[in-house]
Design goal:
Layout: H1 6-14, H2 16-37, H3 47-52, H4 54-68, H5 77-90, H6 97-112, H7 117-144, E1 151-160, E2 165-172, E3 186-192, E4 198-204, E5 214-219, H8 232-239, E6 246-253, H9 260-266, E7 270-275, H10 279-288, E8 296-302, H11 311-320, E9 324-330, E10 341-342, H12 347-351, E11 359-363, H13 366-379, E12 386-388
Parallel strand pairs: 7-8, 7-11, 8-9, 9-10, 11-12
Antiparallel strand pairs: 1-2, 1-6, 2-5, 3-4, 3-6
Helix pairs in contact: 1-7, 2-4, 2-6, 5-7, 6-7
Length: 405
């Protein structure tokens, strides 16, 4: 792989002030342009995230992070791995990268009206460098998958877990074996849309070692504002997918995973911390901890009992396995609710679960994750013992306000 020239690095660095001020405008223009001229790629993107602006914001933050780390791309290894896994889960191929590159450079040119040739040249080389890194990582992921592309699975069980979360149990329609996967990984579900195309979403596998099939547990996403759409796939699964129906599923992906054997060998304590629907990958990790000797604290935050999924399942796991303890914390309990505690995940609360050796895994709404990351940092918990799943550059979490889980 050809290293970037000093001239390219310096030119990209010189664009950082412009990006800091205009990155979101740039990425919004980019998506509009790309979808208009290459509508075949729309199936790879979440329409609701496009309307809310979160997709544009995530890309803007990624572009800024790449520019800031242009001299030290190794600093982006975690983000690159996350993006490569997301791409592989959706079936992104090398031929898609020139499409993105064309519209990214055209958007820079149109926004600067026009861009100096040296800027387009530098960003073209920089994008080509990053594309090659991602293509190579994705090639390795594809080589390790149980199958490539999409495979039909049949829904054989559907179970309501809370007022907004339902579990869907899937088995291969061809009668083949259920794929192996790591605790914390997700699958991609592809379903048809009204216009005759398809759309895809990632859903964490919410069990590990469970018999007969795969389980995903999906929150039904309703629009937060009148000008935003409901979550198309989550509502399709909740309201239309019936027992015996088929969906297309891509192989398990993701690098937010838990190695129970390594934890057993190390013998160090583990804290699994979740908020809201963020419970799904951590519940898979919890199942992998059954019967182990190391201590596991499973702490889950919910708004109230109506929004609390898997309360009985987690309680049963804690009762049946001596190494597991569970704690439920509600941010706004209803009359009659009896959580173990109420409030947010503040410093005093989290400190009781931490020693310098504790391995912490957490997932939940972005504001909750920002808060937890800030608390762990203020406590001085070792960074190499903090693990979480977040789509976008990690520094974006530090800019996010806290709210109830």
């Amino acid at each position: 792989m050809t290293a970037l020239s000093k001239e390219t690095i310096e030119t990209v660095k010189a664009t950082i002030p412009f990006l800091a001020e205009n990155a979101t405008q740039l990425t919004a223009h980019f998506y509009q342009r790309m979808f208009r001229e290459n509508p075949e790629v729309k199936a790879y993107f979440n329409a609701a995230h496009q309307v809310s602006g979160s997709q544009q914001g995530a890309l803007a933050a990624s572009v800024c992070a790449f520019a800031r780390n242009i001299e030290t791309p190794e600093n982006l290894a975690t983000a690159v791995s996350l993006i490569a896994n997301k791409h592989a889960s959706l079936g992104v191929q090398p031929e898609h990268y020139p499409i993105v590159g064309k519209h990214l450079l055209a958007s820079i040119d149109e926004l600067l009206n026009p861009a100096p040739p040296e800027i387009l040249k530098a960003w073209g080389e920089a994008y080509g460098f990053l594309a090659e890194v991602l293509i190579q990582q994705e090639k390795g992921i594809y080589a390790e998958q149980s199958w490539n592309g999409f495979r039909k699975f049949t829904l054989f069980r559907k179970e309501e877990e809370s007022s907004v979360v339902t579990s869907f149990y899937l088995k291969p329609s061809d009668g083949g074996t259920v794929p192996a996967y790591l605790p914390g990984q997700y699958i991609t579900v592809r379903i048809p849309t009204a216009d005759g195309s398809t759309t895809m979403r990632n859903y964490s596998l919410s069990c590990h070692g469970c018999q007969h099939g795969l389980r995903i547990s999906v929150k039904q996403e309703k629009a937060a504002h009148a000008d935003q759409p409901d979550g198309y796939v989550s509502n399709y699964l909740h309201e239309q997918l019936a027992l015996g129906d088929e969906v297309e599923v891509a192989p398990p992906c993701g690098d937010f995973v838990f190695d129970a054997d390594a934890a057993e060998q190390a013998g160090t304590p583990v804290l699994l911390l979740s908020g809201g629907i963020g419970i799904t990958p951590l519940l898979s990790m919890l199942h992998a901890c059954k019967g182990k000797s190391f201590p596991v604290s499973f702490v889950h935050g919910a708004i109230d009992s109506k929004h609390h999924a898997f309360a009985s399942e987690v309680t049963q796991l804690a009762q049946e396995h001596e190494n597991i303890s569970a704690h439920f914390r509600y941010s706004a309990p209803l009359d009659g609710d009896t959580p173990d505690s109420h409030g947010l995940f503040d410093r005093e609360f989290l400190s009781q679960y931490l020693s310098p050796e504790t391995e912490v895994y957490f997932c939940g709404p972005k504001p909750m994750m920002a808060h937890v990351l800030s608390v762990l940092d203020s406590i001085g918990h070792p960074a190499d013992k903090v693990h979480y799943e977040f789509f976008g550059p990690a520094e974006e979490l530090s800019k996010c306000p806290m709210h109830a889980v």
